[in-house]
Design goal:
204 residues, 2 domains, 4-stranded mixed sheet, binds glutathione
């Protein structure tokens, strides 16, 4: 298995899952700043030009964070990355989808890549402010979901790795996380899997 990743990108959550599983895997860094994801050889692996991308041992390739996370959880049941209960599983998928489709793509997308959301440079600050609003509203909802819990669906699951990477990004843009999210981030940063990944990605 090989994970294509960029340091500190959303792929960091999948990297954490691979460390939680503990089986051998390879990594290949994709330099997004230099546009490696738009060029061969990467586009032959993932023509969507995105990380995370997982090349499986059978030669097939899996893309999209929720699909990769779900596949890793279901193929490695011993790692206990999804609860057994169907309602809790669905809740984990719901949270993960919200984090990626809304907080990441809409909220942080506008803050990191404002130029992708407007043709006019004059509008970029407005776009960033809207992105911040979306992310803040998103964190408020995640904060409510974390109320009274250590992890999003009670015990650690794939949903926590997605929540982790947006919490981690909040520091880059100077956002203050609400209390339950701040505590969740600290809990995640204390996990040995996360500490190993931060070392490996040069972020420790
Ligand atoms: N929907 C994708 C989003 C992945 C994504 O946006 N990855 C970013 C890094 S955090 C990326 O590869 N960006 C490169 C680009 O869009 O140019 C998923 O769930 O995996």
């Amino acid at each position: 298995m090989k994970l294509y990743y960029a340091p500190g990108a959303c792929s960091i959550g999948i990297h954490v899952l691979l460390e939680e599983i503990g089986k051998p895997y390879e990594t290949e860094r994709v330099n997004l700043q230099q546009g490696e994801h738009f060029k061969p050889p990467f586009i032959a692996v993932n023509p969507k030009s995105k990380v995370p991308t997982l090349a499986k041992d059978d030669g097939s390739v899996l893309t999209e964070y929720p699909a990769i996370a779900y596949w890793l959880a279901k193929t490695n049941p011993f790692a206990d990355l999804l609860p057994d209960d169907i309602d809790a599983q669905a809740k984990a998928l719901e949270l993960m989808d919200y984090v990626i489709a809304t907080i990441h793509m809409q909220g942080f997308g506008r803050q990191f890549r404002s130029g992708n959301f407007t043709p006019s440079a004059a509008d970029e600050e407005t776009v960033k402010a809207r992105g911040r609003e979306i992310a803040e509203r998103g964190f408020a909802l995640i904060d409510a979901a974390l109320e009274g819990k250590e992890y999003a669906v009670g015990k650690f699951s794939i949903a926590d790795t997605a929540i982790f990477y947006v919490e981690f990004w909040s520091k880059r843009v100077g956002m203050t996380l609400p209390a339950n999210c701040a505590a969740h981030l600290e809990r995640m940063l204390a996990r040995p899997s996360v500490q190993r990944v931060l070392q490996q990605e040069g972020l420790a």
